[in-house]
């Protein structure tokens, strides 16, 4: 059953940008604004208050331009050429709230929209667009004290490389030189990298706001690259995450504990991940339970009570997904864990699929539960 | 004279990607390797040991594909379509060593090469390619202790925004909680942003290597966005940098002095910048000499002895450019400053124009001279 669930979860990735085709184009409100992820000064792509996305790219001599966003597997949004040489078009229906990856297909070639910023997903830097969510306030950039996001480079003997991670330190971290903090190791999904949780996920802003609102005690977040042994899409079950385990637990954790003021024990160390990062979290926490006390799977598989028959017991478990994924199985597993006496929490993000708004909300829900 | 020189400097930006057209294509060595700035797993663009660049993009139904790199103002490198639908081509001559921005023109539209990473320049995220320099060792990622690069978000009352900067802290910064460090404020050029000195410039790796080799005493570098009031290209003489001065000197410097262990006085604070960032450095250091003791102009104008008739005297001055820019004027000004008794150093980067290898080398030359 668990295997089946994971398959569903990972397949959902490819369908994640589907829109609701039931809306007729003449219902579209003409209140389009530039997407918040546009390059400086760029007007397009735009989004309206209903969640429609509108595109405009100037490629005067192209034969065809299609946007991969919208209409799910049915070919995306075809743009139409105007007399000014610009190709324009609007999604057939409103998109789900939150962040979406996309790209252009120009005359049969895969290229990015020059109007918007790029985000690493699908093993390439893709275009990104943001459909304003009704609850976007929790990840907004506000006038509150801000933590720092540090790029660190650490030596990895097991892979003979200098590797990169990003470390979020809370706003209070520089205030005194004595206080030590718990650490959450937070993993991205398949085809993404260590930039995803900051760029697409706004993990730092979510933390800044939670801390400013007094909803959590501050902790550190560490985000690194999890595709160490290059798992291929569709071959997730062959993935042992053994190579990544060595990098994460035996190399990165000691580096972080040496260079940051951490509380360096299992009770103050959590691991969580989205999608493939959840898969990794499950594999690594079940093998290396001595290193992590709190576990989070965000659209990335489930724990069952049987998982903990041997080895150290989890201090806390969080599992989540979007309501358009597999909410029943997440709820079932969460309730089973609770019934078995585990401190477990399940959460379903309303109206979202296998995408970043699910995971932003999941982090927001999970953070207050950690290290308690 | 100074005005004329600055004009030359800024115009050079547009010609910066010119290649030497004297080489015949039949001299090309077939030892092409993927550019080090390619996206993960991407073979193209490639570069050979002579500095030729070769491109390949799959856009089967395109009418024309041109790369802006190569042949200077004469239309770049036209790609030719093969039977497999891929467009390929090689620059007519070898490129200058180092980093170059470029883009594709596909059927009249400006798009990025999907093979390579993007870098913010010309007020857009451009494609980037790296021609390996003979002296690239000084900015290579090596197995040495690495400093961190921190993204900070600071509140700016003068612009009513939350603004971003990056802060390089040296490897030893976390070793003890008492040591305080000097700070260099380092500015990007026109159309670039606060990411440029790390992404294109490898400033952090240059510092890591200098420190590992014992060639400098560690210091902090702060890099922020300098186009606060949106100076338009070609209107540089109308640019007062007054708005930016308020953000930098009255808002960012206090933030950094509060959140980092700095030596918070003029004798331990430097300002330097490349191109427009040099222009800003000159304007701001001459108005706010009480804040900065060391000044650096990298392909960004000159100081003359008369500049310091009034106000605080500089503790050290560094001016530089590429040998393909205006080396005689840099040398003249440097010698005039020395003759007038100033602690001034001038430097010319051999074989480079108004591009990042000039500035990487300039930082490498300037860093050991600061805070002495």
Task: Give the SSE layout.
2 copies of one chain form a homodimer.
Chain A: H1 2-15, E1 33-34, E2 46-47, E3 53-58, E4 65-67, E5 77-78, E6 80-81, E7 86-90, E8 98-102, E9 104-106, E10 109-111, E11 118-121, E12 124-131, E13 148-156, E14 161-169, E15 183-187, H2 196-199, H3 203-212, E16 220-224, H4 242-259, E17 269-274, H5 276-287, E18 294-298, E19 316-322, H6 327-339, E20 344-349, H7 356-366
Parallel strand pairs in A: 15-16, 15-17, 17-18, 18-19, 19-20
Antiparallel strand pairs in A: 1-2, 2-3, 3-7, 4-5, 4-9, 6-7, 8-12, 9-10, 11-12, 13-14, 14-16
Task: Tell me what you see in this structure.
The structure is a homodimer of 372-residue chains. Chain A is an alpha+beta fold and 372 residues long. Chain A has 7 helices and 20 strands. Mean pLDDT of chain A is 91; it is low at 1-23. Chain A folds into 2 domains: 27-132, Immunoglobulin-like (Sandwich); 137-369, 3-Layer(aba) Sandwich (Rossmann fold). Chains A and B meet through strand 10 and strand 13 of A and strand 10 and strand 13 of B. Strand 13 of chain A pairs antiparallel with strand 13 (148-156) of chain B.
């Amino acid at each position: 059953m668990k295997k089946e669930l994971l398959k569903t979860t990972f397949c959902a990735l490819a369908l994640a940008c589907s829109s609701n085709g039931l809306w007729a184009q003449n219902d579209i409100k003409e209140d389009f604004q530039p997407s918040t992820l546009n390059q400086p000064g760029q007007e397009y792509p735009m989004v309206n208050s209903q969640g429609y996305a509108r595109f405009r790219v100037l490629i005067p001599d192209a034969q065809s331009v299609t946007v991969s966003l919208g209409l799910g597997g049915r070919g995306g949004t075809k743009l139409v050429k105007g007399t000014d040489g610009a190709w324009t078009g609007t999604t057939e229906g409103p998109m789900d709230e939150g962040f979406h990856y996309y790209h252009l297909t120009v005359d049969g070639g895969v290229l990015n929209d020059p109007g918007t910023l790029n985000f690493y997903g699908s093993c390439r830097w893709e275009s990104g667009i943001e459909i304003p969510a009704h609850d976007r306030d929790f990840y907004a950039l506000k006038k509150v004290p801000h933590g720092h996001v540090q790029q660190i480079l650490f030596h990895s003997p097991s892979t003979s490389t200098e590797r990169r991670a990003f470390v979020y330190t809370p706003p209070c971290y520089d205030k005194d030189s004595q206080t030590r903090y718990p650490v959450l190791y937070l993993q991205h999904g398949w085809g993404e990298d260590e930039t995803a949780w900051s760029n697409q996920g706004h993990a730092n802003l979510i933390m800044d706001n939670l801390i400013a609102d007094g909803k959590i005690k501050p902790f550190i977040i560490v985000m690194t690259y999890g595709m160490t042994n290059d798992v291929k899409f569709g071959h997730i079950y062959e993935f042992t995450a053994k190579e990544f385990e060595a990098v994460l637990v035996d190399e990165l954790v000691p580096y972080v504990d040496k260079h940051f003021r951490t509380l360096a024990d299992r009770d103050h160390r959590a691991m969580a991940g989205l999608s493939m990062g959840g898969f990794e979290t499950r594999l690594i926490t079940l093998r290396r339970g001595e290193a992590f006390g709190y576990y989070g799977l965000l659209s990335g598989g489930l724990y069952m009570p049987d998982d903990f028959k041997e080895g150290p017991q989890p201090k806390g478990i969080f599992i989540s997904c979007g309501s358009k994924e597999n909410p029943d199985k997440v709820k079932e597993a969460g309730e089973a864990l609770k019934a078995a006496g585990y401190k477990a929490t399940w959460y379903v993000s309303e109206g979202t699929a296998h995408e970043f708004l699910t995971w932003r909300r999941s982090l927001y829900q999970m953070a207050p539960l950690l290290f308690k």
